[in-house]
Design goal:
The chain is mostly beta strands. 0% of the residues lie in helices and 46% in strands. It has no helices and eleven strands. The strands form two sheets. Strands 2, 4, 5, 6, 9, 10 and 11 form a seven-stranded mixed β-sheet that branches. Strands 1-3-8-7 form a four-stranded antiparallel β-sheet, with no helix packed on it.
Length: 128
């Protein structure tokens, strides 16, 4: 089992940058595929991006591709989401999630149902 805690959210102006972090407990962090999702008020939770257990592969939603980057440090049990060129429509609560489906193609990991563990979320607000 793994526990996830996100941090780094806040208020930023459009065009700005923000870096979110997700700290994981447990000794088997490197075996998990890690994803980021977000949920805006009144909307369903949506996929943002995913990184493989090794960190060698990533996949992103089209809406953030080229602006967001996911990385992980398995030695420190952390995964990060670097967000740049932020837009007001990026405003949401951002969640990190962990999946044990390490052998599944990451391009098939865009559904929140693929993830067993979730953090509590961190608010990101982008002002225009």
């Amino acid at each position: 089992q793994v526990q996830l805690v996100e941090s780094g959210g806040g208020l930023v102006q459009a065009g700005g940058s923000l870096r979110l972090s997700c700290a994981a407990s447990g000794r088997t962090f490197s075996s998990y595929v890690m994803g980021w999702f977000r949920q805006a008020p009144g909307k369903e939770r949506e996929f943002v991006g995913v990184i493989s257990w090794s960190g060698g592969s990533t996949d992103y939603a089209d809406s953030v591709k080229g602006r967001f980057t996911i990385s992980r440090d398995n030695a420190k049990n952390t995964v990060s989401l670097q967000m740049s060129s932020l837009k007001p429509e990026d405003t949401a609560v951002y969640y990190c999630a962990a999946s044990t489906n390490r052998w599944r193609s990451i391009t098939a990991m865009g559904s929140h149902g693929e993830y067993e563990y979730w953090g509590q979320g961190t608010q990101v607000t982008v002002s225009s």
